[in-house]
Design a protein that fits this description.
This protein has 395 residues and is of the alpha/beta class. 32% of the residues lie in helices and 18% in strands. Helix 1 crosses helix 2 and helix 6 packs across helix 11.
């Protein structure tokens, strides 16, 4: 991030929905067929001089007064937070006179950058005068609601994944291979340009922090390597095609660099995708394997066969169930499509049994658990209806 934000001199354009944070409209573009959507960058990203002067004329000089002026000049009807790990979003409601709505866009844990705090720790450290809140919080599931309501006041709506719901409305059917079946490991690595030295293997530089514990790049991703090796063993044993699903397109991704340096996974193809296209790619596999991937949960809700292998924190010497499947629900450590372990042979046995689950019994096997960890509302009908009510009521 630049030390100084860039300046903009043009008055904010009128809109119905104002996206909080970002210098362009991102995922909320999917709402533009029904509503007018603009963006309100953070003051650290971009400062609109017209807005700043508007705020100063009212003898107010603070980020909150600036955001209030921005909303007034844009004449927006509702503020929608897409980047829901920005803790400033949860202080907006005390300043604005219009609704503030938040959309969950990823599985949440209390992990932070090496130099900072995790999401929940940061919220808990806010001054007592700030009660983290929004009017509406659209979350993935019962599990998400239980986790987030412990630190945020809101009217919680369980509606699933915003992007996943949009994909559900246009997907024709689940994939079933006519020939050799396919199994894919969902990887979620940082951009290579963001990694000191560009490589993860043997990289002892700090990557994340959990409370006072620093975790290096190599230590964090070692678990992915072990799970992928187990998948490769099962693929060979059961004559399955296998691949690694990368978070980004290109042949020189951090996932490709990492897995190509491990003997057991070096020959596995790494397939990338453009942002937002991961659903199409993941849908082309008969079986998916994930550790703590948001895409894994989304595909599970969409009906794909997904195996979850937890145990990353335990592999790091952290005695916690925080990143186990379905946290914080009271779900056993082992089930038909999930397991918590740090042993490669146990993962192989688990994946063998997972692949053997017949299509005819998949729904009955999973029907009680899946709706508790990810629901689906094709086309985001409930969310769109709520926005329409806000827009109409305040027109």
């Amino acid at each position: 991030m630049a030390l100084l934000p860039r300046l903009r001199w043009r008055k904010p354009r009128s809109c119905e929905i104002l996206q909080f944070s970002g210098t362009q409209v991102t995922a909320l573009q999917l709402l533009q067929n029904e509503f007018s959507v603009r963006h309100m960058p953070l003051v650290t990203e971009e400062v609109n001089v017209i807005v700043l002067l508007h705020s100063l004329c009212r003898l107010k000089l603070s980020r909150w007064a600036y955001y209030k002026s921005f909303c007034a000049l844009s004449r927006c009807k509702v503020v929608v937070v897409w980047h829901d790990t920005n803790i400033h979003a949860f202080a907006l409601k005390r300043t604005l006179e219009i609704p503030v709505m938040c959309i969950q866009n990823g599985i949440r844990h209390d992990l932070g950058p090496a130099s900072g705090k995790g999401f929940f720790s940061a919220l808990k450290s806010l001054p007592p005068s700030i009660n983290p809140s929004v009017d509406d919080y659209w979350v993935f599931s019962e599990a998400s609601r239980r986790l987030l309501e412990s630190v945020i006041s809101a009217n919680f709506h369980i509606h699933g994944s915003y992007r996943g719901n949009e994909f559900a409305s246009r997907r024709s059917s689940l994939h079933h291979s006519e020939g050799k079946r396919k199994i894919g490991f969902i990887a979620s690595f940082p951009n290579a340009s963001e990694i000191p030295g560009g490589h993860i293997l043997k990289n002892s530089q700090p990557f994340l922090r959990r409370e006072s514990k620093e975790i290096s790049y190599e230590d964090w991703f070692r678990f992915d390597g072990m799970v992928c090796k187990a998948m490769a063993r099962i693929a060979e044993e059961l004559s399955l095609d296998c691949a690694i699903i990368s978070k980004r397109p290109g042949e020189d991704t951090s996932e490709h660099r990492y897995f190509s340096q491990i003997i057991e996974t070096a020959s596995i193809p790494v397939i990338g995708h453009e942002k937002g296209d991961g659903y199409e790619l993941a849908n082309s596999f008969d079986f998916l394997v994930a550790t703590d991937s948001t895409l894994g949960y989304e595909m599970l809700g969409l009906g794909s066969k997904v195996a979850f292998v937890s145990g990353r924190l335990n592999s790091l010497g952290v005695n916690s169930r925080e990143m186990s499947f379905g946290w914080p629900l009271n779900i056993p450590d082992h089930g038909p499509f999930w397991i918590s372990t740090t042993d490669e042979d146990e993962i192989v046995d688990f994946l063998r049994a997972f692949v053997a689950i017949p299509d005819s019994s998949w729904k009955s096997t999973t029907s009680e658990v899946i709706p508790r960890v990810m629901v689906v509302d094709p086309g985001n009908s409930a969310l769109r209806k709520c926005i329409a009510e806000y827009v109409g009521r305040r027109a």
